[in-house]
Each structure stands twice: as structure tokens, then as C-alpha cells.
Amino acid sequence: MGKFWSGFVVGILALFVAVILSAVAGIIPVATNSGPLPMERWLAKTALHAKLRSARGVLSPIPPTAANLLAGAQVYNTHCAVCHGSQPHPVTAISMGMYPPPPALWTQHGMVTDDPVGVTHWKVQNGIRLTGMPSFSGSLTATQMWQVSLLLRNADHLPASVTAALAPQPATTPPPSH
Ligand code: HEC
Q1: Is there an atom of ligand 1 within 6 Å of 100 CB?
Q2: Among 6, 62, 67, 108, which is most exposed with the fewest C-beta within 10 angstroms?
Q3: Residue 29 alpha carbon to ligand 1 centre in Å
Q4: What is the number of structural domains in the chain?
Q5: Is residue 13 part of a domain?
Q6: Is residue 40 part of a domain?
Q7: What CATH number is attached to the domain comprising 133?
Q8: HSE-CB of 57 using CA atoms within 13 angstroms
């Protein structure tokens, strides 16, 4: 082994030992509110983009009928709104405390997303490591995962019944009178 290679191996070993020692010494930030590690953001974004390339062309096996979109809205209200917001609460307490923050999928004009349906479906099914985005493959059916993905894909032209289902329901019992 030449001088260069032995130096290279020693360098790698030193780096490895430094990382282990930092972890053991508690120097590596593990708190959500302590900001990203060096290169964390770049690594996570680049790896995700590369992975999503093949998901872009995947089409939904079910059509965006009013019934499917309505079922998607129910999934959204139950499983997604807590992080991705709803009307009139586009930002939730949970989303404010997360790193990276869940993108607010709402503006005052309504729900937004411009991603291909296959990309959203991939994220819902698999989750996104190094973020709080969960994988729903163990908790939702295959149909439900497509229904909520169709909902986001068609967010800018939802039938009125679906928009109504996404809005908070008015209380059915009158407030107590004092
Ligand atoms: C516990 C919080 C949490 C829940 C619950 C959650 N998500 Fe997420 N989601 C995140 C976070 C955090 C990200 C950002 C990931 C990143 O930075 O790459 C994200 C990203 C996304 C994205 C990508 C948005 C963009 O503009 O890049 C989509 C789409 C999405 N989630 C859909 C959903 C759907 C649909 C549900 C419900 C079935 C859901 N999420 C439930 C936290 C959550």
C-alpha cells in the first residue's frame, strides 16, 4: 500500500472515530429544535429527489370521482390535517414544533399541491425518513392512500361537497347559554 492510501485509510478511520466520540459525548445535536446537522438538508433533499424520479409517472389505479375524493377528504381530516393544516388553521401546534416543518397544504384560497399523483402517493405510502412524514402503508388501505393522493392532486377544482367535508363542521348542538 502506498503512502497516499495508508494516509487515506488513517484519515477515514480518524473521521469514523471522531463521529463515534461526538455521539458518545453528546455533541451531535439530537433535539428537533437545534437545527440541521451539516449537510443534513442537502443529503435528505437529494436522496428524496433521486428516489422520486420513478414515482413521477405512476398513475392512480382509481379515478378521481366525487366519491373517491370525498373518501380522500375523510382520510385527510383524520390523518393529515394535524400536521398539514386545515381551514381556518393552516398551521398547527404540532407543525410549528417540527423540523423540517410539514409544508402547509392550505392557503386562504384553499388547498394546494402541484405534485404528480404518483409522487404524493409514494410519500403517503413510504413516508420520508429524517422528517416527521409518516408511512401510512401499515395503517391505511391501498385504496385510501390513492384517494387522499387524488384529493391533493385535484385540490384546485374539488366538487363543493368535498370542499365542505374538508371545512370544519359547525357544531350541531347549540352552545350552553349562561
Ligand atoms: C406527523 C406529521 C405528519 C403527518 C400526520 C402527515 N405528514 Fe405529510 N409531511 C410531514 C412533513 C414533516 C413533511 C415534510 C417532509 C420534507 O421536508 O421533505 C411532509 C411532507 C408531505 C408531502 C410533500 C409536500 C411538499 O410540498 O413537498 C405530502 C404531499 C404529504 N406530506 C402528504 C401527507 C398526507 C396525505 C398525510 C396524511 C395521510 C400526511 N402527509 C400526514 C409531516 C406529516
Answers
A1: yes
A2: 108
A3: 23
A4: 1
A5: no
A6: no
A7: 1.10.760.10
A8: 2
Question: Which residue segment(s) compose the domain that 96 sits in?
Answer: 67-166
Q: Is 84 in the pocket of ligand 1 (CB under 6 A)?
A: yes
Q: Is the CB of 70 under 6 A from ligand 1?
A: no
Question: Is pLDDT at 143 greater than 60 in this prediction?
Answer: yes
Q: How confident is the model at residue 167 (pLDDT cuts 50, 70, 90)?
A: confident
31 is a domain residue: no
Scan for cell 384529493, then name that residue.
151
Instruction: Please state the atom number of ligand 1 nearest to the C-alpha of residue 132.
Output: 12
- Mutating to test ligand 1, I would choose from 133, 149, 150, 166 the residue with most ligand atoms within 8 A of its C-beta, which is 133
**pLDDT tens digits, 65-124:** 999 999 999 999 999 999 999 888 888 999 999 989 999 888 767 788 789 999 999 999
pLDDT of 172 > 60? The answer is no
